[in-house]
């Protein structure tokens, strides 16, 4: 849960002031207020008059909100866009945080969306996107919220105002919602961008909210060490600046992780600290209170500590009133009440609350809460001796848990793979910088020789200058070729190192985990560890294919093509002569990598359904032909752009003293021809 910390416009101040106004205002009074406001010439005088009425205590919050809505609609009719936008933002904030009517807030903001382009107030436009996305999030429309945030981020990026609070908050909210739709790499990127902006703005509280979001993301995806490290900063810095609401929310996330790991002692420890820290005042303390109390009631009930669960249940019931229309908080409230009723053997009441929680999360992307409600219903029906219903819900729970574990494993490996790709890009950047240094040195060398040659030319020594210049060009070409070859072999050594680390480090740990799971008969953990081990082995094989050493170049390529054939819905036809005695070891690696890169590019981009690979051994050379019936591409554009893959493929064949031709036409497929001389005859 995040703090909605907007710079407070005049209308928000009005909403805060009216929260204590008596609710006995009559319709006649409101009509009189409208008449007086209509007689005023400027918007500022209208606001001042409303503030005077608020001081008199004559209107309630909803009454003023209705007046604002009338003026918003009137401003739209008169095409007073900035004034209408100010009304809209104030109304959205009121219904989200004061009235807790998210359906109303979303409707008002969505209704205004077509008009936002007419406004010229950049600050209020940014605020609109944030409020609109916040309302969608509370309605659990996570993908819709992401679309809104992306549009808002594009707008704010164009403004280039790094001091704008909404700029960082948009990235923060996008990080949260990207996680909810299973986009872990994008989520990490959004959180890191938010942290960078808030650090620049010296906004420590919002920086910690972004850090807490990052910690929760790591924890949900099984990266517990990273989660703990990120969360520790929230504990330390949040306590130091006395921002206890973010510390409490971090405690609840730690409590949730402990529950997933079945660590009862840690779960109870974290909820005790959360209960202690939530007593401090904060601007979102009402929401923090409800969440903390709900966690406490559930945690103590699950662990059989009924008296403590009952104690916090009474406090929860007394404070839920203003938040009962919040779908997010309502889910945790119903789960807590159900666990407490189950602990007290009030089975009918427990079933009713559990069904409400289940209905509330059904159809949403809140997998953890869906699993909680399924397991809870299974336990309730088991106590009621309704075994068919208990078994049905338990099967739903197990099926979803297996699915979540599989998704988590895939997301974790996708994230690690993305990190490896980022490291690869860093290496490419380092290589480019090295190229620039070499080019600078070459330019200095050329300049020197040009001056020297000019002097020698004047002195009648032009022939010597020409000779040295040609010699330098040859040396330069040799240096470039050697550098390219060294770079490729360095990449192969890096891949070999990473593959060994995955096999000897992560692989051994996963093997031990599988053995322990098998010994303790934890079937779910055994399956997860075995699936994870298999994925690690697949990654290691991609980095350092053992088939090349075990089967030779012919067998390795055959196995490579068969692997692609099994994995993708493409018809691969391989016609290959034995070429094991054609090349030296290093050349075999280059040849294998060339085919591997070609196949990878093909399945990623070509959209082909049929592929033909021919490898034919001639008297003095090996001919390679790869053709597909895919969509093709613009070869010149790819080659001139950032297509390092094509350049690397060509470089590998050149290192084997061969040549390669790539022919492609849009929507007519691609053909790759290579001729490599036999050097090991």
Automatic annotation (TrEMBL):
<dbReference type="Pfam" id="PF07730">
    <property type="entry name" value="HisKA_3"/>
</dbReference>
<comment type="function">
    <text>Member of the two-component regulatory system NreB/NreC involved in the control of dissimilatory nitrate/nitrite reduction in response to oxygen. NreB functions as a direct oxygen sensor histidine kinase which is autophosphorylated, in the absence of oxygen, probably at the conserved histidine residue, and transfers its phosphate group probably to a conserved aspartate residue of NreC. NreB/NreC activates the expression of the nitrate (narGHJI) and nitrite (nir) reductase operons, as well as the putative nitrate transporter gene narT.</text>
</comment>
<dbReference type="InterPro" id="IPR036890">
    <property type="entry name" value="HATPase_C_sf"/>
</dbReference>
<dbReference type="GO" id="GO:0005524">
    <property type="term" value="F:ATP binding"/>
</dbReference>
<dbReference type="GO" id="GO:0000155">
    <property type="term" value="F:phosphorelay sensor kinase activity"/>
</dbReference>
<dbReference type="InterPro" id="IPR004358">
    <property type="entry name" value="Sig_transdc_His_kin-like_C"/>
</dbReference>
<keyword id="KW-0418">Kinase</keyword>
<keyword id="KW-0812">Transmembrane</keyword>
<keyword id="KW-0472">Membrane</keyword>
<dbReference type="GO" id="GO:0016020">
    <property type="term" value="C:membrane"/>
</dbReference>
<feature type="domain" description="Histidine kinase">
    <location>
        <begin position="497"/>
        <end position="680"/>
    </location>
</feature>
<keyword id="KW-0808">Transferase</keyword>
<keyword id="KW-0067">ATP-binding</keyword>
<keyword id="KW-0597">Phosphoprotein</keyword>
<keyword id="KW-0547">Nucleotide-binding</keyword>
<keyword id="KW-0479">Metal-binding</keyword>
<keyword id="KW-0902">Two-component regulatory system</keyword>
<keyword id="KW-0408">Iron</keyword>
<dbReference type="Pfam" id="PF02518">
    <property type="entry name" value="HATPase_c"/>
</dbReference>
<dbReference type="GO" id="GO:0051539">
    <property type="term" value="F:4 iron, 4 sulfur cluster binding"/>
</dbReference>
<dbReference type="GO" id="GO:0046872">
    <property type="term" value="F:metal ion binding"/>
</dbReference>
<dbReference type="InterPro" id="IPR005467">
    <property type="entry name" value="His_kinase_dom"/>
</dbReference>
<dbReference type="GO" id="GO:0046983">
    <property type="term" value="F:protein dimerization activity"/>
</dbReference>
<keyword id="KW-0004">4Fe-4S</keyword>
<dbReference type="InterPro" id="IPR003594">
    <property type="entry name" value="HATPase_dom"/>
</dbReference>
<dbReference type="InterPro" id="IPR011712">
    <property type="entry name" value="Sig_transdc_His_kin_sub3_dim/P"/>
</dbReference>
<keyword id="KW-0411">Iron-sulfur</keyword>
<keyword id="KW-0963">Cytoplasm</keyword>
<feature type="transmembrane region" description="Helical">
    <location>
        <begin position="448"/>
        <end position="467"/>
    </location>
</feature>
<protein>
    <recommendedName>
        <fullName>Oxygen sensor histidine kinase NreB</fullName>
        <ecNumber>2.7.13.3</ecNumber>
    </recommendedName>
</protein>
<keyword id="KW-1133">Transmembrane helix</keyword>
<dbReference type="InterPro" id="IPR050482">
    <property type="entry name" value="Sensor_HK_TwoCompSys"/>
</dbReference>
<dbReference type="GO" id="GO:0005737">
    <property type="term" value="C:cytoplasm"/>
</dbReference>
<dbReference type="InterPro" id="IPR011990">
    <property type="entry name" value="TPR-like_helical_dom_sf"/>
</dbReference>
